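for ur thesis appendix - Transcriptional regulator MraZ. copy paste whatever u need, i formatted it the way the template wanted (i think)
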Amino acid sequence: MNTIVGTYECKVDAKGRLLMPAPLKKQLATSLQNGFVLKRSVFQTCLELYPMEEWDLMMQKINKLNRFVKKNNDFIRRFTAGVKIVEIDALGRLLVPKDLMAFSGISKDVVFSSAVNIVEIWDKELYEKSISGEDMDFADLAEEVMGNINDDDNGIS
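the 3d part is after this line
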């Protein structure tokens, strides 16, 4: 698993192309030749960019689901809705298909935000709203999600 770090801003051109920021492109250099999968996020109004290696790992998990269970089949359909294979062109641009542009609300200013092993692609205004904290107390969320994890022998999380 490759850990991606950082938040980067750019603009989208009239054709729906995003110029990948150089520090992000450098982190993804080993993935450039294999391509990427671009999809709708499950929980947010943004897009998720999976390096192909990460997408293959996700598909291995999903392929273990029993497709004769309706709930599993419905999940697979929704999870893979709008999925596109994309590449970064020679100039470092990523073309976002129109249906995914519409889903994500991307209009002009864009934020690439690392999410461990994938990259979220947001309309800047929607991104700022999502991290503003108006709808949740981040300290409470952090305690609930990470508060019981203590993998180190030194007592430090």
